Amino acid sequence: MEPGGCFPVYNIELQVQVSGTKIIGTSYHYSDTSNYVREVFEGVYDSAAKNMLIEEQKVATFHIPPDCIPCIKRYSLAFHTDGREEQLRGSWTGKTMDNKSTCPPGSIVMTRIQQSAFKPPTPPILELRKNELVKEIFVDTGSIKLDFYDNGQIDGDTISVFVNGTPVVSGKMLTTKPITTYIRIDLRKTQQEVIMVGENLGSIPPNTALMIVNAGDKRYQLYLTSDEKKNALVRFIYEKPK
Predict the structure, then answer these.
(1) How far apart are CA 156 and CA 79, in angstroms?
(2) Strands of 191-198's sheet, edge to edge?
(3) Burial class for 130, CB neighbours closer than 10 Å (0-12, 13-18, 19+)
(4) What is the CATH number of the domain that holds 224?
(5) Distance CA 169, CA 14 (A)
(6) How many helices (H) and strands (E) does the chain have?
(7) Measured between alpha carbons, how far is residue 92 from residues 112, 114, 205 in Å?
(8) pLDDT tens digits for the chain (242 residues)?
């Protein structure tokens, strides 16, 4: 990164899902597991030129020093391989999350890996409370959409959501409008654990949420409850389509 950023050198991991020419996924920007930004992105892939244009859409969650502002980036990347190693090489530009400033641009070389290198520490709230299994859901699709609503009267319930211990929703209040997140599941990671944490009890305890799951042509409706002693856990298990 050119001078002016909080971290002159840091790591970026792109978890990329390609469908035809369309790209969706999640990015992690991190110097270490205690300083990170998670964002969601979209993009396009030109298979003939072997180029990708990826644009981060929004910041999902972050944990960085208070004087730093997350940067939302636009990447221009080209695919290279020597037959053994696969790389994406290119550059980025971007703007700060508040859209007030331009981020210092940078150059990047990314190497394909099979497992995520970003492993943040388990949040204490997942260790101090019981993670109570609500349901195991078997799916045959790689992309799952989750929508969270307040279950019943709007009473100020606030939740956080973790996927395999990584925060994907942080301190959002449940309303009649959905809090939406996506999870990816495949043959390399056949199980995904989603945990809903009630950050408060609202005016009508306990903290309750309606979770709508859309997985391919299947739809599920689950009622989740969290309080000071327990979180709600839903486990998704991938089964190869018959």
Answers:
(1) 47
(2) 130-139, 230-238, 191-198, 158-163, 166-173
(3) exposed
(4) 2.60.40
(5) 18
(6) 1, 16
(7) 18, 24, 46
(8) 777 777 777 889 998 888 789 988 889 988 877 788 888 899 999 989 999 999 999 887 788 888 888 999 999 999 999 988 999 999 999 999 988 889 989 889 999 987 777 776 677 788 889 999 999 999 988 889 999 998 877 878 899 999 888 888 888 999 999 999 988 876 667 889 999 999 988 777 889 999 999 998 999 999 999 999 999 999 999 888 77
Domain identity same for 51 and 157: no
Same domain, 46 and 141: no
Question: Which of 44, 78, 111 is the last residue before a domain boundary?
Answer: 111
Q: Are residues 92 and 129 in the same domain?
A: no
How many domains is the chain partitioned into structurally?
2
In order of 98, 108, 183, 234, the CA distances from 186 in angstroms are: 34, 27, 10, 17
Last residue of a domain, one of 80, 111, 142: 111
- pTM listed for this prediction: 0.58
Q: Which domain holds residue 153?
A: 124-238
Which residue blocks in 83-238 are alpha helix, DSSP H? 124-128
How many Å apart are CA 149 and CA 212, to the nearest integer?
A: 8
Name residue, tokens 């929703």. 169
Q: What is the DSSP letter of 174?
A: P
Q: Which residues contact 128 (CB under 8 A, 6 or more apart)?
A: none
